[in-house]
Specification:
Elements: H1 3-21, E1 28-39, H2 46-49, E2 61-71, E3 79-91, E4 95-108, E5 111-117, E6 146-155, E7 164-179, E8 183-188, E9 191-195, E10 199-213, E11 220-232, H3 235-239, H4 247-256, E12 259-260, H5 263-266, E13 271-272, E14 275-287, E15 291-301, E16 315-323, E17 333-344, E18 375-376, E19 379-380, E20 387-388, E21 404-406, E22 409-420, E23 423-434, E24 445-447, E25 450-452, E26 462-474, E27 479-490, E28 496-506
Antiparallel strand pairs: 1-2, 1-28, 2-3, 3-4, 4-5, 5-6, 6-7, 7-10, 8-9, 10-11, 11-14, 12-13, 14-15, 15-16, 16-17, 17-22, 18-19, 20-21, 22-23, 23-26, 24-25, 26-27, 27-28
Organism: Arcticibacter pallidicorallinus
Signal peptide: 1-23
Protein name: Capsule assembly protein Wzi
């Protein structure tokens, strides 16, 4: 386990002990859960492993133990602190320990400072549990350990009288040692010399700013914002003395997205420093008498086509309905929230009909430098609909340099939160048509006017259906029971089914 994660875990345990010793145990929430898991075909179904913050059971028959402890803020205090830990132990044909969370946070007025691993998402949608997942950060992988300063809730300066409110965050994280491409060490009469570099320490730069137009009492509200993520680090070590930026200058280039390098001058290809991506989000919210309506759109950017609106066809579109009359005391069948989403990412400024850009097709999540692309510990950080090479069916056409072999997707997704008598249900279903990448398409990969025909076969178009049903029921004395059932059917992933039986105790 990474030394930084160990430190955060130890600190959190010490804080918990300190809390208990001061007779504040009533403010700490603890729950323990035991699961019996079973999956078929040596595969964990799609929605059983996707957007679970890396908390995934083993394939086959296994048992899992999950422990959580957390302390939230006291709403009556202007300055307060909290913490959280969550750990999972999987026991089966193998064993695995997962630290899903371990963080400390402090609130002072509108500001929050946090440190550690948290269950974070990035992007505007209706509900992390019901959504198919944000483009930027969906909660699919473990959280990257980081330090963050934020305004987590909408805040309106007094001069705006609640008409305009903002929220945002700025973070620095540690992504650990990542595989990178061979680097150009020199270029001269003898040609280009490439030096292999296995792994380098890398970091995460992340920031976001969102605004809301409309007071808290208005029925109609408009939301908008942008988020920006970069994996970067150790450029001087990689390129040697030809890299001419100081650490402060390098961070400036990372934070602003300014391009650096020129083959003719220092042998470094001109490009942004690090792997950049994010989304520009828009939403309209309206309060009806019995339900709340939210319509939202995430516009994607990766290598720069969004500046010319060349990939504007791509995006995540969502409609969410929240039942304002829902109560836990109701009986019969009742719905709490419903979300429908449509994901389209086939364009990428790479279709023959698309506007050409110098950077070429976006090739979402893949990066020529960082071989793992937009992933962390083998799991994609963004939407799980973009398929990594370690989960797709063997034999799928792919470019060997791509970690994500399918990022041209058309997907329909439904999420439903409902109750029937004393049982609470969460349903997710999705259907997708998957078209690989432009490297495995008839159009080929593009960079400006340069077109590279497909050299590794054609991916074609394959369909995939995935479903997930979770049920929970509260019993007496803090106990609850439940189950999860999931299934996959299609040609992108291996067909599989899964069942989890669980019992939980809240203290």
């Amino acid at each position: 386990m990474n030394i930084k994660i160990r430190i955060f875990l130890i600190i959190t345990v010490l804080v918990f002990c300190s809390t208990a010793s001061k007779s504040q145990i009533s403010k700490v929430h603890i729950n323990l859960e035991m699961q019996g898991n079973g999956t078929t075909n040596g595969t964990v179904p799609f929605w059983m492993r996707s957007n679970q913050f890396g908390s995934i059971p083993l394939s086959g028959a296994s048992t899992s133990f999950i422990a959580k402890a957390y302390k939230g803020y006291d709403s009556t205090k202007t300055i307060d602190w909290g913490f959280g830990t969550e750990a999972r132990a999987n026991l089966g044909s193998t064993s695995k320990f997962i630290l899903t969370e371990g963080y400390i946070k402090v609130r002072a007025g509108i500001f929050e400072l946090s440190a550690g691993r948290t269950k974070d998402v990035m992007g505007f949608n209706s509900d992390q549990r019901l959504s198919s997942g944000n483009f930027s950060v969906s909660g699919n992988a473990l959280g990257i350990p980081k330090i963050s300063v934020s305004i987590p809730e909408y805040w309106s300066p007094s001069i705006f009288n609640d008409l305009i409110a903002i929220k945002g965050s700025l973070s620095h994280g540690w992504t650990g040692k990542l595989h990178i491409a061979d680097v150009i060490s020199s270029t001269g009469p003898g040609g280009t010399i490439r030096t292999p570099v296995d792994r380098v320490d890398s970091y995460l730069h992340q920031k976001a700013l969102y605004a809301r137009l409309g007071t808290s009492n208005w029925k109609l509200k408009l939301h908008g914002g942008i988020n920006h993520q970069v994996i970067w680090g150790n450029e001087r070590y990689i390129y040697g003395e030809t890299f001419g930026l100081s650490p402060i200058e390098t961070f400036f280039f990372v934070a602003t997205g300014k391009a650096y390098g020129r083959i003719q001058e220092n042998g470094i290809p001109r490009s942004k420093i690090g792997n950049h991506l994010g989304s520009i989000d828009l939403a309209v919210e309206y309060d009806f008498p019995t339900f709340n309506l939210l319509v939202y759109r995430q516009n994607f950017y990766d290598v720069g086509a969004i500046a010319k609106l060349a990939n504007i066809k791509d995006g995540l579109n969502g409609i969410s309905l929240t039942n304002k009359k829902f109560t836990d005391q109701s009986h019969g069948i009742r719905w709490k929230k419903a979300t429908f989403e449509f994901l389209y990412s086939k364009d990428q400024a790479g279709l023959n009909s698309s506007r050409r850009t110098k950077s070429g097709d976006e090739n979402y999540y893949n990066n020529f430098f960082y071989r793992g692309g937009w992933s962390y510990k083998g799991l994609g950080l963004g939407t799980p609909f973009f398929t990594a090479n370690n989960v797709a069916r063997k034999g799928s056409a792919s470019d060997p340099i791509d970690f994500f072999i399918n990022n041209r997707v058309v997907a329909f997704h439904l999420g439903l939160d409902a109750s029937i008598e004393r049982w609470d249900y969460l349903l997710k279903t999705s259907f997708s048509r998957n078209h690989g990448t432009f490297a495995t398409s008839p159009e080929g990969r593009t960079t400006g006017s340069l077109v590279v025909p497909p050299r590794y076969g054609l991916f074609g178009a394959v369909s995939q259906f995935s479903a997930y049903l979770e049920a929970n029921r509260k019993l007496r004395n803090g106990f609850s029971v439940g189950y999860i059932a999931a299934a996959d059917k299609g040609k992108l992933l291996y067909n599989s089914t899964g069942l989890i039986l669980k019992i939980r105790k809240d203290f």
